[in-house]
Structure formats: C-alpha cells, structure tokens
Amino acid sequence: MNANQISQIAASVLYLDDANAIDTGKSLFKEYGMSSLDFVDFAYELKAAANKEFDPDQLWPINVMMNNPVFYAGGSWTDAGRAELVRLFDGYTTVPASGGTEELYALFSVGYVEHRLRAL
C-alpha cells in the first residue's frame, strides 16, 4: 500500500473531509486525534485493503512491548527493548533517545504505517 491509500483510510476512519490534508509525517495519534478505538478500526480497514493478515498489535507493537518486562521495566526500556525499537523503526526513522511513550506515539504516521506494512 502506498501513502495515498493509507491516508484515504485514515481520513475515512477519522471523518476528515480531505485525505490530502493529512501530512504523511505527522502523528495520527497526536496531530489528528486518532483514539484507541479509531486505531483498531484503522488497522482492520488496512488489513482488508492490503489483503494481509495481521492484528492491530502487530501494526503498532509499542503497547504490547511496554507490558513485557523483557522490553520495558521500571518505567524505561531495557536494552532488549531498545534493540527491538530500533528494529521496528529501522529504515523509517531513528528511535528518540528517551524513547518515552509520547515520543513514540509521535512517530505513528502514515509514513510509519507504510513502512510497517512492508514488514508485515
């Protein structure tokens, strides 16, 4: 799937009039107000349009990773967690040094989704 197709799906889920108004580098969560319910709808729409089998946690595995003490413990990423973040975002962007939740949510963009879909 390309960025235009992903933007069309995001615009539909977010009830935006113009998919072209979505900046492919801006966070769908932070800039466009995608909620967790919107995210699930978005993931299932992508799944159907891309004709790929995946669940929402595979599209955005950050939340699952944060619940796994191998990756996230004591309020911060472990070495294994940082390595997994680097692998997840490889070729798309550099993982922020702090790698906090807000910084990572800021990376969930159309561009990230396009990158992630290629990996799934």
Rg, nearest Å? 14 Å
Structural class per helix/strand content?
Answer: mainly alpha
Question: Any idea what the shape is?
Answer: globular
The pLDDT mean sits at 93
Helix tally equals 7
Q: What fraction of residues sit in β-strands?
A: under 5%
Runs in which pLDDT lies below 50 for 5 or more consecutive residues are none
In the CATH hierarchy, the third-tier topology is known as Non-ribosomal Peptide Synthetase Peptidyl Carrier Protein, Chain A
Q: Report how far the terminal alpha carbons are from each other.
A: 12 Å
What is the class in the CATH system? Mainly Alpha
CATH architecture: Orthogonal Bundle
Helix % is 40-55%
Secondary-structure element order, as H and E?
HHHHEEHHH
Biggest sheet: strand arrangement: 1-2
Number of domains: 1
Main beta-sheet annotation: 2 strands, antiparallel
**Number of extended strands:** 2
Pfam families: PP-binding
Domain Carrier: 5-60
Organism: Solimicrobium silvestre
Protein name: Phosphopantetheine attachment site
